[in-house]
Amino acid sequence: MTYFCGSFFNMNIVSTLQGAVAKAVTELYGEATDASKVLVNTTPPDFTGDYSVVIFPFVKIAKKSPDVAAAEIGQYLADHVSEVKAYNVVKGFLNLEISDSYWQSFLQTVAGNESFGTTPNNGKKVMVEFSSPNTNKPLHLGHIRNILLGWSCTRLLEAAGYEVIKTQIINDRGVAICKSMLSWLKWGEGKTPESEGIKSDHFVGDWYVLFEQKSKAEYDAWQQTEVAHQLFESKSKPNQEAKDFFKDYKNKWFNEFSTLGAEVREMLLKWEAHEPETMALWQKMNGWVYAGFDQTYHNLGVSFDKLYYESNTYLLGKDIVEDGLAKGVFFKKEDGSVWVDLTDAGHDQKVVLRADGTSVYITQDLGTARMRHAELGCEKYVYVVADEQNYHFQVLFETLKRLGEPYAEGLHHLSYGLVELPTGRMKTREGTVVDADDLVAEVLRIATEQSSERGESEGVSQEEKQENLRRVGMGALKFFIIKVHPKKKMIFNPEESVDLQGQTGPYIQYSHVRINGLMQRIARENIDLAPASGYSGIQTQEKDLLLALHEYPDVVQKAAAEYDPSLVANFCYDLAKKYHKFWHDLSVFNADTTEARAFRLSLSKSVGQVLKSGMGLLGIEMPERM
Predict the structure, then answer these.
(1) Residues 536, 103: contact at Cβ < 8 Å?
(2) Could you tell me if 409 and 284 lie in one domain?
(3) In a domain? residue 602
(4) Same structural domain, 220 and 249
(5) Residues 388, 337: Cα–Cα separation, whole Å
(6) What is the pLDDT of residues 17-66, one digit of tens each?
(7) Helical (H) or strand (E) element with 351
(8) Which end of the chain is more exposed for a tag (fewer CB within 10 A), N or C?
């Protein structure tokens, strides 16, 4: 009996081999084997073959040595599977060479098929929440990592067949927002973004930084008072220095002693009471921030399907707290605050409503979660938030489960590590954060300088030059951040990100530009690619590219399932690196035969197509020239 996969769309070669090995084990040794459990990997470069089968799981069944069992299974595959051209055995591993006819057939299915690597709609919906900034400051480098992870995950999930709804929850209320409002009200003297010539979200962020500076000055002065001295004497630990005591005491001071803190709390209470002047100020300053955010999102190439505002969800959260009290999920302390006890789940007790009746973050998140499910009805809800909030989401998800929310099992926190610059960690309160807009401008500046030094823009119109530089600069920024596994902390180096020789976006873009040049020549010279089907004797460099292309659909599926776009980023880099070797080692237009030339051009076309597709899933555009 012969097993032939026919078309790649029906079954890829790995699935064919798994099924054939399972069949061989059954017929040779009389024991059924689950085909999905058969381990088939790409053969290491030091050995002959395309795919390797791990034989050790079948040694006990075969009652023979690994090499003997491998040889018997290999011969069975050679006799029954037309795609298997040859086999060899190395220390219990069965290495298989796949026929040129299979690779010819595979290449024909890829070339010109722009949907290669994607999956038809599966009828399921998933929501991805990302960015979700506060309206007291502009977007910064940390937000860029969040936004790029979120956006690329939405593209990956769409490629995996999901209907994706892109959302953000805008943190437009609370203490931090009131700090910016109070600062402008006290010291702004009617200034506006227009009057100062400052991008509107940066303008609001400056008032937040000023508030923190004023608050620090107030705290420093308070520490010299008799009240502070008495507190230190009565509350400090043995041998504890004053500077360490007051470093840890700052939040308590702000809530109990600070004049500015009292004014902020008063403003928050006025906001919750919808006091007209406070609401007008809030709307004006938030409007400035939204205008700035929209400009940054446009520059990053991202958009959202649905916006949620904490100002609209925190009251619903309070209703959920009341429901939870009635169900016994929450309990009330003597001061009137409401808590949830999660100690039996390895957490602690968590406040869900303050004693004065105002909400905390988790109150709002409870309300938002229920509201979104009622509106969207998704199977999955993905929150893209830094790992500093890991505990918050553990508590949130566990609380929603105890409340019996029907969507609770479909919640996922895409946690990611902090991103720093080579100069170290940034701090918003100290005004040392690098704003997203400034970082984008810096990367574009470096890309422009390097392009000018290489003389790459000669003979190109100014409009095309600027567009290509934008794509290179943004590709450098995005790839450098996305290529790192989300959970890892990272350092973003603007200079390194634009390097044409490293593991960078421009390196991959250059491969695509080179291939694009080939495609333009094909069109100009009207070159026929049909002779590619007559090519035989596929070279190692060609096989490496074919094997990589073959992996692409699985890489996309795995990246979507694991919410890890770094898998696609690193795949694209490896594919580009293989193509550079192919280009260096083999002649394309000057190949020995017409068949070889057509095959290599067709292979190049497929590589360019997959590079464009893969980078597109990361939100990266390919330039026409570099």
Answers:
(1) no
(2) yes
(3) yes
(4) yes
(5) 25
(6) 999 999 999 999 999 999 999 999 999 988 999 999 999 999 999 999 99
(7) strand 349-353
(8) N
In the structure encoding, which two tokens stand for residue 309, read together?
Answer: 């505002």
End-to-end CA, the chain = 53
Question: What is each CA distance from 251 to 240, 246, 497, in whole angstroms?
Answer: 18, 10, 39
pLDDT at 451: 79
User: Do residues 163 and 82 both lie within one domain?
Assistant: no
**pLDDT in the model for residue 461:** 84
Domain tally, the chain:
3
Answer whether 0.70 is exceeded by the pTM.
yes
SS (H, E, C) 41-105: EECCCCCCCCEEEECHHHHHHHCCCHHHHHHHHHHHHHHHECCEEEEEEECCEEEEEECHHHHHH
DSSP category for residue 435: B
Q: Measured between alpha carbons, how far is residue 105 from residues 12, 98, 433, 539 in Å?
A: 11, 12, 53, 16
Looking at the domain assignment, is residue 471 inside a domain?
yes
129: which 2 tokens?
């929440």
Model pLDDT for residues 449-464, shown as the tens digit of each residue: 887 777 665 667 888 8
Q: Are residues 396 and 513 in the same domain?
A: no
pLDDT value of position 460: 73
Pairs from 195-203 (Cβ < 8 Å, separation ≥ 24)? 199/138, 199/292, 199/295, 199/437, 200/288, 200/289, 200/291, 200/292, 201/137, 201/138, 201/139, 201/288, 201/289, 201/291, 201/292, 201/293, 201/296, 202/138, 202/292, 202/435, 202/437, 203/288, 203/292
* CATH of residue 592: 1.10.730.10
> What local confidence, expressed as pLDDT, does residue 361 receive?
84
Q: How many CB atoms lie within 10 A of CB 323?
A: 15
Question: Measuring CA to CA, which residue among 506, 389, 400 is closest to residue 443?
Answer: 506
From the list 570, 516, 517, 526, the residue with the least C-alpha distance to 548 is 570
The answer to whether residue 334 sits within a structural domain is no
Measured CA to CA, the distance from residue 187 to residue 195 in angstroms comes to 15
For residue 102, give every residue at least 6 positions away whose Cβ sits within 8 Å of its Cβ, in sequence order, or none: 5, 13, 83
User: Which domain range does residue 604 map to?
Assistant: 436-479+493-617
Look at residue 122 in the predicted model and tell me its pLDDT. Answer: 96
d(CA 83, CA 86): 9
Which residues of the chain are modeled with pLDDT < 50?
A: 1-10, 426-431
Write the CA distances from 373 to 126, 141, 158, 327, 377, integer angstroms: 11, 30, 19, 21, 5
Phi and psi of 504, rounded to 5°? -135, 165
Q: Which residues share a beta bridge with 53? A: 40, 94
385: three-class secondary structure by DSSP: strand
Same domain, 44 and 158: no
The first and second tokens of residue 497, run together, are 């990100």
